[in-house]
Amino acid sequence: MTTYRIHPIVVGTKVFDKGMMTYQHDYGQEYVIPIYCWYLEGGDKKILVDTGEMQPIQSRDREEKIGGRIYTFQEGLSLWGLSPEDIDVVIHTHLHNDHCENDYRCTNATFFVREEELESIHNPHPLDFRYLEDYIEDVEANGQIQIVRSDAEILPGIEVVHTPAHTRGGLTVFVHTPNGRAAITGFCVIMENFYPPKTITAMEMEVIPPGTSVNTYDAYDILKKVKAQADILIPLHEPRFASMPTV
Question: Could you tell me the fold of the domain covering 5-243?
Answer without folding.
Answer: Metallo-beta-lactamase; Chain A (3.60.15)
